[in-house]
Amino acid sequence: MHSISWLEQTATRYIREKARASLDGEPGSLAKFWAAGPAGRRGLKQVAEEREALRRAEETGRFRYIKVEATVQLGPPETAPRGVLLPIRERLDRWYEKEGQQASYALVRTHRTLWVPRGDDWALAEDEAGQEGRRLAPLRPVLGSEPGPYEEQSQGSAGGPAYRRGAAVDYAERWWDGYNPEYRAFDVDCTSFISQCLAAGDAPQWDIGRQDMGWWYRRQGGPQDQWSLSWAVAHSLRWYLAGSRQALQAEQVKDPRLLQPGDVIHYDFDGDGVWEHTTMVVDLDPGGEPLVNAHTAPSRRRPWRYADSPAWTSRTRYLFWRVRDRF
Fold first, then answer.
1. Which fold has domain 4-129?
2. Rounded Cα–Cα distance for residues 89 and 96 (Å)
3. pLDDT per residue over 15-39, tens digit each?
4. Angle at which helices 190-200 and 165-175 pack, to 10 degrees?
5. How far is CA 250 from CA 24, 169, 242, 259, 265, in A?
C-alpha cells in the first residue's frame, strides 16, 4: 500500500508516537517505523537522548512533566531515488507541574524525512531535524565590546525614552511562531527576532552607517534591507550589550530571578566563548524563574535553561541582561 496518503498517515503516527515515547514510552516501540540497519539505530538513539534531555530538564528546573502533545503539518512530498522526501513541521506542547501548579510550553521543530517502500508499507530511512543554537556568521563582535569613542557619549537619563516591556512581550507572543514580513527572515533567526521584540518595546536604535557598530535595522525594500551585526548575530549582540552606553542598553545580572518580562538571555551551549542563541523573557514560572520565547527553534514560554534542547551540554553558559527601563 505505497500510496502517498498512506505515507502521510504513517508519518503522522510516527511523529505523535515519538513525542509520547520521549516522555513516558519506550523508544523500542518506534522500531516498527524505521528501516533496518544504521538508520533505525540512529533513530532510536535520538529518542533515547531526548528522553534523557527531558529528565535533565525536570531535574534542573525542579518540575515534573505531565503529558506531551504533537501537532503535525506535512509538506509536499517529493520523489527521490530511494523513496519519497517528506518535510514535516511538528509543534510540541509539553505540560508540567511545578510547586503544585500546572503550566505548559510549546516549541516547533522541522524534519526532513526520507521514506522507502517496505513490503506493503513505508519505512523511515532518514529523519533530519532542524537544530537549535546554530551559529550565524560572521562571529566578530560589534564595536563596543571594548572601550570605543561612543562609550564616552550620553549615558542616558531618568528622563529618557521608556522601554515598553509589555509591547516587547506582546511582539514576542505575536511572532514566536512566524516571521514579520517587515523584516528579513534569516535561516538562523533567533537574535533578529529578539532585536525586533526590543524595537517593538521602543528600545532606541543607534545607526552611524557601520555594520560592526551600534544596533540598527534599515528597511529599504526587502532585499535592500541592511542591519548591524548586533541585530542578527547572538555573539555580536552579546558584546554590544556589554559595551553600550547609549540607545539600547542593558545591565548584566547574575541571578535569572532578577529578570523581568522584556529582558534578554544569551546562551553559549558549547562553553567555548561563542554565544550562539538569544531569548526574551516573557513571564515567570511558579518558582519565579524566567520563561522565554525564541526563534530557531520557535519556542513559547519555555523554561529558560533549555535543558531539554539537543544543543544543551554540560558546558552551557548563560548571560542575563536586565534591559534599562529608560534610555
1. Nuclear Transport Factor 2; Chain: A, (3.10.450)
2. 23
3. 999 999 998 767 778 889 998 888 7
4. 140
5. 41, 16, 8, 11, 11
Q: What is the mean pLDDT of the chain?
A: 89
Rounded to an integer, what is the distance from CA 215 to the centroid of its chain? 21
Q: How far is CA 71 from the centre of its chain?
A: 18
Instruction: State how far the alpha carbon of 84 is from the alpha carbons of 38, 109, 130, 271, in Å.
Output: 19, 20, 19, 39
At 208, is the pLDDT very low, low, confident or very high (cuts 50, 70, 90)?
confident
Domain topology for 149-323: endopeptidase fold (from Nostoc punctiforme) (3.90.1720)
CA–CA dist 42, 128 (Å, integer): 11
Q: Where are the domains of the chain?
A: 4-129, 149-323
What tens digit of pLDDT does each residue of 58-87 get? 999 999 999 999 999 999 999 999 899 999
The Cβ of residue 257 has, within 10 Å, a number of other Cβ atoms equal to: 11
Q: Which residues contact residue 152 at a Cβ distance below 8 angstroms, ignoring those fewer than 6 apart?
A: 245
Cα–Cα dist 109/257, whole Å: 28
Bridge partners of 284, per DSSP, are 290
Longest dimension (CA), the chain: 73
In 130-276 the beta strands, taken as DSSP E runs, fall at 217-218, 226-227, 250-253, 264-268
294 vs 281: CA distance, rounded Å: 9
Strands (E), 119-259: 121-129, 217-218, 226-227, 250-253
Predicted model pTM: 0.90
Measured between alpha carbons, how far is 82 from 188 in angstroms, rounded to an integer? 30
With CA atoms as reference, report the closest residue to 299 among 152, 107, 162, 155: 107
